[in-house]
Amino acid sequence: MIDELNVAMPAEYSDICPIADKDFHNEMSILVEQPAFQQVVSLVLPNYKYSELKHILLGLNSKHEFQMKVMKPYLDGLLAKSSSGLTYSGMENIDEEIPNLFITNHRDIVLDSAQLSYLLLKAGRKSCEIAIGNNLLIFDWINKLVRLNKSFIVKRNLGRIQTLKAAIQLSGYMHFAITQKKECIWLAQREGRCKDSNDRTQESLLKMLTYGARDKSIVEALKELNIAPIAISYEYDPNDYLKAKDFLMTDKNPNWKKNSQDDLISMQTGIQGFKGHVHYSFTPCINDELDKIPADLDKLLTIRRICRIIDRAIHENYKIFKTNYIAHDILFDNKEFADRYTPDDKEAFTSYLTAQIDKTDIKLSEFDRFYMYTKMLQMYSNPLTNQLEALK
């Protein structure tokens, strides 16, 4: 089951697909000689001699071996240090013989997908292929590394014509991966993280997913992907103050843009920062729900209905933590959920928010601090707000 299927990769996907196992050893032998890779590995794994790790890497022959012998042990250690535990529910909803497109809400640049594969591997299942934007692949060695770790590339920041071509290529690859390679895929429900945690599936994302089966209706094209939403819940978001800073900078200057260094800082903070309890809620494939959509429904309305189906599955299945209840009560100035936490819990959470804002690397006025504080309250309260609405 774990072995990579012997399926020929169409040439049109060669520049975005994961590296094939038959090429794994050769590509890894090139990667381990990169000075930048060696430097980063020495920082991330300070207790390892690089020569020893290099020997391990050169002894691997597949992406699965890489994940089981290197990535899984790394995540074991990382989660022990940076979380109160990673749990999941509902995996019984997923037939391991059917490849799924797992669509999730998006909190962390790296860990959302990495933790999903980690959970699947721990359950004795195949890990999933991962969609990753090329805006994060600022060096060639990073591109090679992620493709050795079952990632495929999403081309971004292109011109209008090139963007359409890239979307057709990407959608075609995902349909190929699921129907021919029989691989599961992870995809965020929107481009980039949802910084205020008000998770909504982008209509343009679903439209893109239909391009790979353009001879079929919208519903039939999406059914081919066996979409199964997953709700990801973090008790604490290590990037909360950085996301609040992004909102602040954009509010001050609508033309402000993050740079690649900002993305690297977000990745490092998300990986190493404390997350508290993290939970993944697996929900059933939505194909039965798609079958209920009238065949004569307008295309735009069809896309919007499917977005709502995915959103509802995610919103209903958030795991709600004390941080969410406290933030909701503070933001709306009431005590609706006061029975879910203690006064000490509330004081600890507000102190946490203040300490996070103190980490900001720019000078802040009192108004700036209040603005960031409010934005962070919204981040933590929105999952609860959405769940309450979905469960009505």
**Overall mean pLDDT score?**
95
Largest sheet: 7 strands, mixed
**Topology as H/E string?**
HHHHEEHEHEHEHHEHHEHHHHH
Low-confidence regions: none
- Gross morphology is globular
**Strand adjacency order, main sheet:** 1-7-6-2-5-3-4
Share of β-strand residues: 5-15%
Write a structural description.
With 392 residues, the chain is α/β, with parallel strands linked by helices. It folds into two domains: 11-22 and 83-235 and 277-318, no CATH class; 239-272 and 320-392, no CATH class. Helices cover 51% and strands 9% of the residues. It has helices at residues 24-31, 35-44, 50-58, 63-82, 111-122, 140-148, 160-179, 203-210, 218-223, 240-252, 260-272, 287-290, 299-316, 322-331, 343-358, 366-390, and strands at 85-89, 101-104, 129-133, 151-154, 185-188, 227-234, 277-282. It has a seven-stranded mixed sheet with strand order 1-7-6-2-5-3-4, with helices on both faces. Strand 3, helix 6 (140-148) and strand 4 form a beta-alpha-beta unit. The longest helix has 25 residues, at 366-390. The model has no long low-confidence stretch (mean pLDDT 95).
